[in-house]
Hints:
Elements: H1 20-40, H2 43-59, H3 71-97, H4 102-114, E1 141-144, E2 155-156, E3 173-176, H5 178-187, H6 189-193, E4 199-207, E5 210-218, E6 221-223, E7 228-230, H7 233-242, E8 246-253, H8 263-275, E9 280-284, E10 293-298, H9 302-309, E11 328-330, E12 334-336, E13 342-346
Parallel strand pairs: 3-5, 3-12, 5-13, 8-9
Antiparallel strand pairs: 1-13, 2-12, 4-5, 4-8, 6-7, 9-10, 10-11
This protein binds zinc ion (2 copies).
One zinc ion (ZN) binds at residues 252, 254, 262, 265, 283.
Amino acid sequence: MEISSVSVDVNGKSNNRFPLSLYFKLANQLIKQAKVFRDERNIIDLCTILERYCRLVSKIPQHSSYSTYSVQEKLHHNKVHQELTTELENLKSQLSHGFRTQKDQEVYNERKVENGGAEETKIQSSTINVNCVTQSSPFPVLTFIQSVPEAVQLSHIAASDSGDGQSQSSCQDVHISVRLMEDFLELARDNTNKDLETCGVLGAFLKNGIFYITTLIIPKQETTSSSCQALNEEEIYAVQSEHSLFPLGWIHTHPSQSCFMSSIDLHTQYCYQLMLPEAVAIVMAPTDSTRNYGIFRLSDPGGTTVLKECQERGFHPHKEPSDGSPIYEDCSNVYVNPNLRFEIFDLR
Length: 348
Ligand SMILES: [Zn+2]
Ligand SMILES: [Zn+2]
């Protein structure tokens, strides 16, 4: 008997690491953030957020709980999706006729301000205020403020052996502090010494076309020497959304294994990339003498298609993507930013 492809749940339980409610929460957060950028007349970042919202809402029906989810919420997002798609198309056509760069838009906004529009808000210049993350929290929080040198020195993480990152050209740049990775390793040390993995979740904000990873959340977790599962995703998400941060991926240790992405890691990463295409998977492998860390993504559409169709659980082999790309690759647009302030929430 042939089964209609529409009724087949191509996204089996292996890709339902996060509850569907989390995806809807992110969708609502994107709507809120779009309003902020709209009010600031920050068209470049508004377009990115609208694109991310439309992408997310079109992927949500893949989730196996979708058919049983609140009809009201689904109808609401169908309606918003239509409105925001129209807004995005209009903005894109404005951009193609006028502002090609952030600079063009700033000039445009400045002119508008000069022209006396009393309600116009001039958008911030390209100087990035990375110290804007302040909070009070019931969770233990460690804050690190790094001294700001005269000139920002960014190191580009070079894409190396596992791919050339070409499929990531539509992703926004991502900045991360190298000290965040080092401090994570330090906080993981007790587990690492016992040959147990540790995982953390990364939170970021978007400003002038760049996602800045400014928060590391170490959740309650179940861990073994070759796997690590965060518990209570809702608690993690609550910390992120309270600070208007987006889930931009995760970091975990391989205490005794080399620096690579296991099949379970690939499924976890698929769930993050479903939320935002910029999401990264950072693997810290202190005992790998050739490479002690890697910042990876699934190739898209090559790797994401393989993962979307895979219903296996546990460790299992994956077929090669049909377009010849590697299933995952080094991120091509992630930069180590020494000036980035970050915070750590240890929820364990
Ligand atoms: Zn792993
Ligand atoms: Zn699989």
